[in-house]
Amino acid sequence: MSFPAPQGGASLVLSFRLRNRKILILGSGPLAASRAFSALEADSAITVIAKGGLTSACDELRWRVQQQQLRVVDWDTLPQSSSGTEEEASLGSHLTDTSFVCVTDTVLGEPNRRGRASAERIYRLCRARNIPVNTTDMPDLCDFSFTATHRFEGPLSGTRSALQIGVTTNGQGCRLAGRVKREIVGLLPKEVGAAVDQVGIMRGLARPLDAVEEHELCEDSGMSTPNRPVPARSPTETEVERASRRMKWVAQVSEYWPISRLAAMTEHDMGEVLAGECYTSPSAPSTLSPSIHSLDIRQKGRIFLVGSGPGHPSLLTIATHTALTKLADLVLSDKLVPAAVLALIPPTVQVRIAKKFPGNAEGAQNEMMEAAVEAASRGLTVVRLKQGDPVVYGRAGEEVLHFRAHGFEPVVVPGVTSALAGPTFAGIPATQRGVAEALAVCTGVGRAGRDVQLPGYERARTLVVLMGVARLAAVVAALLDPAAGARRAGAVYPLHLPIAIVERASMPDQRVVVSTLRDIVRALESAGEQRPPGLMVIGWAVLALWGTGDVGVLDDGVERDDEVRVTRWLGEDVGWRVTEGLPTGWDAL
Ligand code: SAH
User: What's the gap in Å between 536 CA and the centre of ligand 1?
Assistant: First the structure.
């Protein structure tokens, strides 16, 4: 067995809720004021202790005292006693019930700067009472450090969101931490705070008050994939089942919807999500309800069935781009279509995103088809936007027949399919002379969540499995089961056969986990949270282009060399390798 080896030297990054807990701040300069402000935002009760008390305090602290936000105590008026140290006598009673101590009067430039010896005594006093201390400029006297933080704006301007981020460099560069924080904030969509708050509200609506213990209802329930099927709704559903089904939907929405759409959710939209309806984007332009006068001159509606490619917006075809940006009145999008592609659609175009969650695919599909026919019947140009290529597990066939039956012949525009682009982005050639002469693409999940029959092993064939990563263990078991049975048609797969899990191919957070069929389940588990969507690539092509390459798999034809081949590729020790991010060069595209 092998799990990630911990690499010490990091901090345990926690965020504390301090409602009315006591914080003691020593010093009354601008740094003390800034610590006080952070602590006030966390609703704590603050006592500032400094030589000279209020008279020597900085303007901000004096103002906050006037506002009754905190109190300032003069160090010199604290009770002194003849026994023990000055620090012990002065601080002793103040330390009772204190949660944290911040010593700020050790900062350079402070007029009454506290010396090292006194700071050490304070540190020891607190240590003896298990009170964590931060001592400015003395890293060895710190149990915790402050992160560079940012609180995001809430849905209404001027309000604060529940979303905060903190950046730490573990004492290696405060300035740089501030800049990294600013750059992260700059990269996030500005509505991200509002999105968090809206999701919070929706979570509240998802679970009936008091009925269920909070811990039973985590959105993920400890599972590392949000793609577990949402249990079908049953007439005998209990409150808890109902609440956990709804929480699952909240998790799905949090994972897939663009931040801007989450931020713009109204309570009505949330109700629709929780009831299992489709979601309509907030912008519903007037073109959707043409006036009576325009009825007779209206053109006949059209439907385009287009593919978005695997994720990177530059992999859209020009045809799809034109349909989305120039032709569409209404875009009906699949849930998996990446936010970067949705972002290209002009804001005046209405966008609906299917609520095609596991367990709810059928309903969402029908609703989307009906919405397309309804809008096209009103003369609108409808773009049905599918992820990847519309005919690769995209139900394009059903839609073509449905639209045709309603008098609309859709234009089907192919897209770059993840089945081919996924391997390429992972450095794996789907076919390769000397390694893989054929390619099979299949799904890991059958209709209505049933098992599928996977193809048997062929040395010269690459197998790409879509929609199977959430059920990885079952898929691998079917490939390795010596008895073919109903789950596999043909030869059993060798244990050491290379496999790659390619997640979010072509997106900035792309991740590739490579291993063998024997170890892949543990490899993926050890890599942390899954990042849907993901696919599997199975076969010798997975190692063909690694390093200096190995393209003799078929020519050598010596299967006993295979273990050596795998060891050369993966190394002796761990049994897998994880690669993060896009291949070099894609940032320029
Ligand atoms: N029509 C799509 C496939 C739809 S099925 C296409 O041609 O790509 C959905 C499955 O596609 C997902 O479960 C996943 O297996 C795969 N998939 C889609 N986009 C992906 C991506 N960017 N990276 C990895 N897998 C992806």
Answer: 10
Q: Are residues 158 and 57 in the same domain?
A: no
Nearest atom (ligand 1) to Cα of 394: 1
Distance 341 CA to ligand 1 centre (A): 15
Do 159 and 132 have their domain in common?
Answer: no
Q: Among 346, 381, 416, give the residue marking a domain's end.
A: 416
Query: Which atom in ligand 1 lies closest to the alpha carbon of residue 390?
Result: 1
The total of structural domains in the chain comes to 5
195 inside domain? no
Is residue 220 located within the same domain as residue 285?
Answer: yes
pTM of the entire predicted model:
0.63
Residue 464 C-alpha to ligand 1 middle, in angstroms? 11
Checking if the pLDDT of 500 tops 90, the result is: yes
- Give residue 578 CA to ligand 1 midpoint distance, Å: 20
Q: Structural domain of residue 166, as residue ranges? A: 151-188
CA 398 to mean position of chain CA atoms: 32
Pocket test for ligand 1, best of 391, 418, 428 (most atoms within 8 A of CB): 418
Quick one: pLDDT at residue 284? Answer: 37
SS3 of residue 240 by DSSP: helix
Helix (H/G/I), strand (E/B), else coil: 366: helix
Give the Cα separation of 68 and 62 in Å (integer): 10
CA of 471 to the centre of ligand 1 (A): 15
The whole-angstrom distance between residue 94's C-alpha and the CA centroid of its chain comes to 43
| One domain for residues 284 and 318 | no
Average pLDDT estimate for 492-513:
96
What number does the ligand 1 atom closest to the CA of 467 have? Answer: 13
Residue 239 pLDDT class (50, 70, 90 cuts): confident
List Cβ neighbours of 144 (8 Å cut-off, separation of 6 or more): 11, 100, 132, 133, 134
